[in-house]
Amino acid sequence: MRIGINGFGRIGRAIFRINMRDKIFDVPVINDINPDINNVAYMINYDTTYGSLQDSFTAVDGSIKNKTCDVSVCCKQYIDHVDWNSFGVDYVIDASGIKENLLRANTVLEKNPSVKKVFITHSPDEVDFTMVIGANENNLDVSKHNVISTSICDATAIAPILKLISENFELAGGAITTVHPLLTYQNVLDGEVTSWFDPNMIYSHYPLGRSVFDNIIPKPTTAIAAVFKVLPQTGIPDIASFSYRTPTTIVASADITLFTQNNTELEDVKKVLYDFEQKQSYKIIQNSEQPLVSLDYKMCEYSAVVDHRWLSVTGGKTLKLILWYDNEWGYASRVIDQITYVNKKLGL
User: Fold this and answer.
1) Beta strands 304-307; 217-219: pairing state
2) Cα 270 versus chain centre, distance
3) Is 3 exposed, middle or buried (0-12, 13-18, 19+ CB in 10 A)?
4) Residue 296 C-beta-side C-alpha neighbours within 13 Å
């Protein structure tokens, strides 16, 4: 496979780094609005969160190169301005997070015969299909789903768990609180905060504009809306949701409370979780009983780790789960899995 990456921010670079290690596909070209190719090389070489590359890149004649890779770098404003076809690209990942690139995804397919699908690394409505591995990949129709959302990190972690629990224990409701690290569009000091997705929009939720360093910021979350895009027919009732944005750089958590219709035994829940881990084809759910904290899960490739120290059933009908997930590395790992899944479905 030959993959083009549009947008070389946190997720684009995570996908690139994981693929450098695992060598799943070729990346002949990336496109980013950053016009300084030396800076593009610098950002992949040195990463405060994930460390420095041993085999570092240098910028040479419009490309970034190291001992094993030679990647052309474009600096086009929009995704459909790149001649992906000339690089023989099979799939394009739009990791820019920009609405305008999403709206131009079909144009990419029209202008570039080699490109079979475009993958969008967030959860907008303007796509053919939204997929989460472990939740709804079997519903993908490769004959008609061409612009595919890879959802968001929260839904990637939560949806497979909700699906598994709802299939084994009839649910009556629940609530989820996500604890999410800071993101690049937030402010170092207090001010208004502009949407990365739509640069013309200033968030009306004013607390999100407060300093990322000094505050735990309560905010609404799109996590449950994203979950229900991929779990529309599972019989899961409405679930309340809420989020905290924290002054940490990586690893998110989800505090899940679910109410069951019938009495539920803790050992039965554990068995369901451990059985799934043993049988799964992808790194979706991992179970842990270790006394760990958030950074211990940095670079964890699983969609979610269930922390069994806090797994409980109270009164027979209140189930509590705590999840950990690397919101960049774990999510990027599933984006790669989605591409390989689609490629296999196409028989390539």
Assistant:
1) unpaired
2) 26
3) buried
4) 9
Q: Any idea which residue has 């640069």 for tokens? A: 199
Q: Which residue has the tokens 């993101």?
A: 183
Secondary structure of residue 245 in the 3-state scheme: strand
Nearest to 6 by CA among 38, 32, 45, 33: 32
The tens digit of pLDDT for each residue in 224-239 reads: 999 999 997 666 778 9
- H/E stretch holding 160 reads helix 153-168
- Using alpha carbons only, how large is the chain's radius of gyration in Å? 20
Across the strands, what pairs with 4? 29, 92
- Report residue 255 as tokens: 């505090």
pTM of the predicted protein model: 0.96
Say if strands 117-120 and 91-94 run parallel, antiparallel, or are unpaired: parallel
Count Cβ atoms below 10 Å from residue 107 Cβ, excluding itself.
14
DSSP state for residue 71 in the 8-state scheme: E
Task: Give the CA distances from residue 272 to residues 167, 168, 276, in Å, rounded to whole numbers and listed in that order.
Answer: 10, 8, 6
